[in-house]
Write a structure and sequence with these properties.
4-stranded antiparallel sheet, Rossmann fold, Alpha-Beta Plaits
Length: about 500
């Protein structure tokens, strides 16, 4: 078939736009990233605190001169300064690496470590040093976990360093000009801050990588371009995700008749209407089924608003709820369907077609709806009576929009589409696997009726009450709010009443 050849030739590559959209999707998960980062930062902070041992530092500074104490004068030439700077490098090595000096400092410190006399190796491990660039100034620091020990070792160092340095360089001179001071407070705990920052970065990085991996692995429709590139289907329209405001926002219906819904949402259905009308004129189509590959893709909302858009253009429009397993058009429109058997009742002969079709002036729309689920929907829809009903309404109305169950789950949609002129597929953003959507399109095409295109539902822009927001919570916006499961008969059930309400 032509459709299959198109699908085989679609471009599966990833372009800049797709990458950008993926990046947006990662950003939309900021709260997950933040939680993970904060948790890991907390872990890092805890680890640092548990392992933290306060440290105390005594710092000493020395100057080095290329002349000895007896010959140094107040004035120094440039060559003297340069020579002293070079000499300081040699002094630095002796003052930090000399085993003799370390042993001497240890012996005269008067302190023990773990009950044992302080050794030169112990002193060497306490020392850190620095040579001030382009000077003859040497900075020596003694760091221990005890302020008294740090001070004692530093004092011993000042008192004993000349014994070794003068032996090495008898004609030069080194002076301690900044004597040690006993530390009154521990050093700043930079380790805690470092561990906390590392934990934060690690947590955020891991989650970002995980989200990216899931996004790239998850084989779903993630952009409007994917409709044509990955499905090989025409785009009928792109529907933004709308989040109603107010205390009872979750119970509000998203309809184009409500101006608070938002300009972009309303205009999207006007565009869909225009495309449907163009197709209808070219092909003399009147009856359109609307389905989806899976549950919760928003097909009932799309069906309802498409019918409303056509009716607003002065057309006589009948909206039929052919989802006999779980009728919900009446809920979407917010109308009463008590004691209405709808299409199933007409097929069974319980009511006449004229009795069952109701006109709602509020919407300028004719409805064939029900609130009563049936167990034998496939058998009813496959009957001659069902086909006759579709043929009858086709002659009475300008357009007939039929809401069907998901084509990827049950056969009902394909059965009804046989009586229609064409079919539309609703594809929700990042919802159904592409393979399932392709299978649904193939099944609809196999009926011999044209799949005129797809409606991309739940795009990344969310508009509500004139505010533009990201659609992190878009799945609560207006989508198809009940679930198809695998409970009975054909593997198509409904779950508990509590579950139904939770999905609204």
């Amino acid at each position: 078939m032509e459709y299959n050849s198109k699908m085989n030739n679609v471009d599966e590559g990833i372009d800049l736009q797709t990458i950008t959209q993926y990046a947006v999707r990662v950003i939309q998960k900021w709260w997950i990233i933040l939680i993970a980062a904060v948790v890991c930062a907390g872990i890092g902070f805890g680890v640092a605190k548990l392992n933290y041992v306060p440290s105390y530092t005594c710092t000493m500074r020395f100057t080095v001169d290329n002349k000895n104490e007896n010959t140094v004068t107040a004035g120094q030439s440039a060559s003297d300064i340069s020579a002293s700077s070079q000499l300081a490098r040699n002094y630095l090595y002796i003052m930090t690496e000399s085993s003799s000096l370390m042993d001497l400092v240890a012996q005269n410190s008067g302190y023990k470590v773990n009950g044992k006399n302080l050794t030169g190796a112990d002193v060497k491990n306490m020392i850190s040093s620095n040579l001030v660039e382009d000077t003859s100034i040497i900075s020596i620091a003694i760091t221990t976990t005890d302020p008294d020990v740090s001070y004692a070792v530093a004092t011993s160092y000042v008192n004993n360093f000349r014994t070794i340095t003068e032996e090495a360089y008898p004609s030069t001179y080194a002076k301690n000009y900044d004597p040690p001071v006993k530390p009154e407070a521990p050093n700043a705990n930079n380790t805690t801050l470092l561990y906390t920052l590392l934990g934060f970065v690690f947590g955020a990085g891991v989650v970002v990588l995980a989200i990216c991996l899931i996004i790239f692995i998850k084989d779903t429709i993630k952009s409007s371009d994917d409709i044509t590139k990955k499905l090989g289907s025409k785009m009928l329209g792109s529907i933004i995700s709308v989040k109603k405001s107010g205390k009872d926002s979750d119970n509000q219906n998203i309809l184009i008749t409500d101006r608070k819904t938002g300009f972009m949402f309303i205009e999207a259905f006007k565009l869909i209407r225009t495309k449907i009308e163009n197709v209808a004129k070219r092909q003399n189509y009147k009856v359109f089924t609307i389905t989806s590959a899976s549950e919760n893709e928003g097909k009932t909302t799309i069906s309802t608003n498409t019918a409303l858009a056509l009716a607003q253009n002065g057309k006589s429009v009948l909206l039929v709820d052919a989802d006999l397993r779980k009728p919900s058009v009446y809920k979407t429109l917010g109308v009463s369907a008590a004691n209405e058997s709808g299409l199933a009742g007409v097929i069974r002969g319980e009511k006449s077609l004229s009795e069952s079709i109701k006109y709602f002036e509020k919407f300028n729309l004719f409805l064939l709806i029900s609130s009563q689920a049936v167990n034998d929907s496939a058998e009813l829809l496959a009957s001659d009576e069902a086909q006759e009903i579709i043929e009858a309404v086709k002659n009475e109305f300008d357009y007939v929009i039929i809401d069907t169950p998901p084509a990827g789950l049950v056969a009902d949609a394909a059965i009804v589409t046989q009586y229609a002129d064409a079919c539309m597929i609703v594809v929700r953003n990042d919802h159904s696997p592409i393979r399932r959507i392709k299978k649904a399109i193939e099944d609809m095409s196999a009926t011999g009726k044209e799949v005129v295109g797809c409606v991309y539902n739940g795009t990344e822009i969310s508009v509500a009450n004139k505010f533009i927001k990201t659609s992190r919570r878009s799945k609560k916006g207006y989508g198809y709010g009940y679930g198809y499961g695998y409970g009975y008969g054909y593997g198509y059930g409904y779950g508990s009443e509590k579950e139904k309400k939770s999905k609204k």
